[in-house]
Amino acid sequence: MPSDPGTLPSTVTAAFQLTAQVDPDAVAIRTPGDAVTITWREYADRVRRVAEGLHALGVRRGDTVGIMLTNRPEFAVVDAGAMHLGAIAFSIYNTSSSEQIEYLFGNAENRVVVTEQAFLDVVRQAEPPSVEHTVVVDGEAEGAVSLAALEAMTSEGFDFDAAWQAVEPEDVLTLIYTSGTTGPPKGVQLTHRNLIAISDAACQVVDVAFGDRITSFLPAAHIADRASAQYFQAIRGVQVTHVADPRSIAAALPDCRPTIWFAVPRVWEKIKAGIEAKVAAEENATKKRLAVWALAQGAAKARADLAGQELGLPGRVQHALADRLVLSKVRETLGLDQLKWAWSGAAAIAPETLEFFVGLGVDVCELWGMSEISGAGTINPPGRAKVGTVGPPLPGVEVRLGEDGELLVRGPSVMTGYRKEPAKTAEAIDEDGWLHTGDIATIDDDGYVTIVDRKKEIIINQAGKNMSPSNIENTLKVSTPLASAITVVGDDRPYVVALVALDPDAAAAYGEKAGIAPDPAVLAKDPGVIAAVQAGIDAGNAKLSRVEQVKKFEILPSYWLPGGDELTPTLKLKRRPIADKYAATIDGLYA
């Protein structure tokens, strides 16, 4: 069996080799409906072949390998193959524009990129100078190497066992590119020691065993999917069902029947809304009353459990009946009936959503983490959750508050630094090893952490994607000359919207030409102004990834002046005052 917590191997490669020997004929990787199944024996064999193929292309220990793939079995095979060379496999978001790809590959300096037919054009448009070989996993393509051909390559003198055994705990395992508050993404360097440490810590809080089942449907460029699927698989022997289209996750769950599961708040909210909509649409009055009653019994049980109390005998009897008649059947229909525990992270989840699932019999634990700490720093332990908090720190993780209330974290899961960014690394990690997270928090007497606010300016949408607002705004302003300021909003929202303040000079010039008074209230409704701003937004969007693109905007009926409600004297945006002042307008854009 894989090593017990506290006695794990020192590298993820060594852990993989041990795990692959537990039950070689067990299925390690699959897709819904068993369209593809790969046993541990087959997985290990393909990893060996991919490693040799990459070696034949010139990849060596410490080199980088870029991956732009959907959630598919080939991702795991390529990622693990590179890892066994001591190489640094990293993933980029599938929504990345060619300009973003060019920057990321320029920072990573990868000579090899592995992709699929759907992304081949945008990868080639990027023209990153370092890339020498493109590998396509789903067939043949001119000027590219197929994955089948890669796996058939031989490399003279290559010794697979010597290669993976040479990997050291301090070797960088992967790069996670995360948006900062300003400027381009930073490459978080995570080592084998980091990921072994976080796996060890997590397994002291939650049970993860060989044969447990999970899905991979979130972007592999996000640390959440990478740690919960790819590395948990290698270290603990988790079976992973790869779901290429995240929109089909609801249909995939009954097929996979996960025993452990991670999802961002937006997914939990959609599942909750789906259940409630089905109940509301039930035409049979008796069935509808039964469902409403059962959910109410579940809610009562959840409130008692989360408060550390027990229901009285009548309540326990009613809940048992509700579970037998309705709640257990809902869990089975959802595919969550074999779930031991689940967790939610990447963004804050509403307390009522957590209570709903606890009432349904699904133990969802909210956690807090970031790429810089290998994914997780705190987690609500199953059965001991405090709603509204993100739980106590994981074993081995130290937390404290700075003078301004900023949450500081120290421990073996903290990154080694940002790739080629020593100054930014020094800003993030102080001389005593404390990572300054940028989150304002409180810590109660039991050690449970509550995130109060973000010190740094960053957007985390409902799907958990981190975005730099200033990076989006700066891109849009370049192509929207009529605007003096553009403020984007999208924190904990399904998409990004923008508030546009017109530039007085540009507006006056437009008004004179169009025969319109330079009154911002009039110009904001003028079809020509709206079309010009729309054209600018569209041009800016073309340079942004899909999740960063502005879906709606509102031209404001007043100019923003330095030192006013919205701008500092040095023209910096006052984000919180803007959010408060224009709350109704923002809400209207999401209506």
Automatic annotation (TrEMBL):
GO terms for molecular function: long-chain fatty acid-CoA ligase activity. Pfam families: AMP-binding, AMP-binding_C_3. The keyword Ligase applies. GO terms for cellular component: membrane. Residues 17-418 form the AMP-dependent synthetase/ligase domain. The keyword Protein biosynthesis does not apply. InterPro entries: AMP-binding_CS (IPR020845), AMP-dep_synth/lig_dom (IPR000873), ANL_N_sf (IPR042099). Transmembrane segments: none annotated. PROSITE patterns: AMP_BINDING. Keywords: Fatty acid metabolism, Ligase, Lipid metabolism. PANTHER family: AMP-DEPENDENT SYNTHETASE_LIGASE DOMAIN-CONTAINING PROTEIN, LONG-CHAIN-FATTY-ACID--COA LIGASE. Belongs to the ATP-dependent AMP-binding enzyme family. This is Acyl-CoA synthetase. It comes from Nocardioides guangzhouensis.
